[in-house]
């Protein structure tokens, strides 16, 4: 009995040492991520490498360590860390090529070999799935991201809210309407097209399309899919928060902030905020203070003793609701007058076409429509007639700045009976 007791103490001591090492490594990785977010690349690189030598990390840890090393002009270390990230995780070669942090690595002898390794791994992984479905998800991913990336580049080169960025986002908005229809069709045929249907590389694509076209109707489907491991629960947490804040409710995971045109940010209120980091950890999200720091917000997680964050850090829902109640633009003459002026095309009449044409447009500061586009049409001359009517319309623009809207025009128009 004494022998077993001594062995038990030894095992307990060993487990205690391992637990302490794991905590020490976790603390070091947190410090490294914070240094990376502050662009202190020397500290981030050194801390990452020390932590990962003591204890192996996740694919994301090696990827971020590679970013820090590359930014700190340590190409050999960066390549080695990135190789480990590719071995552990799922990183498409084209994403590695597009990552700005790795531009300094492209002249290194091992760079092309690393890209080949990433491509080969993806090809072998995706060979197990329906090639047409995988190809479709890749196309949808491109459509979902293209103009957003154009906007990001414009923001970096020209500053926030440039004309080029605004134009790109208008084009992306039209594209979003098309991609959500594609995803709806896929869901009708297959259910959520996640990990079991398209693999690790494309499992989140359909979710991000939905995230850009948020609707609570998708939540039961997405929750079941996330629970089954079809895509990331950490991604779903962001949608849950977004839907709640849009309804004027407190968010759950603290992912939603509001930034004005000058880049000043506020955090939407959080329910049971004392336990927010517990909920974030459960779905694989970093602590909220770390997440918000990356977005330029200083935050301290509240405790049972109180909340040390200033009230000014939080969005006032009442102010937001009052702003929403005040119309930014008002159609001169009213909607009934606009609809009554629509001409029902003869081609549509012959084919008995009916429904709505959705037009996206921007109202300039003088109330004149510009950048018109049909995002959901009927054909048979209805789309052209909708654009004609909207070009002729005029608005009162109380905001005094460009305002983007969508409008549905009925074909044929039938006035309500009194």
Automatic annotation (TrEMBL):
Pfam families: DUF6624 (PF20329), TonB_C (PF03544). It comes from Hymenobacter profundi. Residues 329-418 form the TonB C-terminal domain. Belongs to the TonB family. It is a single-pass membrane protein. The lineage of its organism: Bacteria, Pseudomonadati, Bacteroidota, Cytophagia, Cytophagales. This is TonB family protein. It is found in: Cell inner membrane. Residues 1-22 form the signal peptide. InterPro entries: DUF6624 (IPR046732), TonB-dependent_transducer (IPR051045), TonB/TolA_C (IPR006260), TonB_C (IPR037682). It comes from the Bacteria. Keywords: Cell inner membrane, Cell membrane, Membrane, Protein transport, Signal, Transmembrane, Transmembrane helix, Transport. The keyword Cell membrane applies.
